[in-house]
Prior knowledge:
The chain is of the alpha/beta class. It contains 5 helices and 5 strands, in the order βαβαβαβαβα. The protein has a single domain, classed as Rossmann fold, CATH 3.40.50. It has helices spanning 14-27, 39-51, 71-78, 98-104, 120-126, and strands at 4-10, 30-36, 59-62, 88-93, 110-115. The protein is globular, with a radius of gyration of 14 Å. The termini are close together.
Amino acid sequence: MKKIDLACIIDDDPVHIFVTTDELEKTKMFDTITSYKNGKEAFEALKAIHESKEQLPDLILLDLNMPIWDGWDFLDEFTQLDIEEKIVILIITSSNNPEDILKAKNYDEVQNFVVKPVTADLIMDELKNYQ
């Protein structure tokens, strides 16, 4: 499995960001890990990166329940960008609501719906097909 240049965590909970970052680092698969505290902040940053032709994340770990813009707001806007690169998006949330799981399936860009917490093993399983 090839090393991944950039992973992005979008979550408003600093504890979750810390734990998830630690689990990502355990995999030794990521050169850089960034984080954003809500969907709007993430969208604006990633849109600017895309427009400046810089490298977008290879992996986005997206929480659903956040202030300002939630995960759905982020997905609605982010999926409208004309991005050619493959980006693995995992919804990582405390929600186990069946409606959220079904809604996530409406987004081709979402690879999986995972209930927190994230583990290194889970990340490795999700990235098996990433090349």
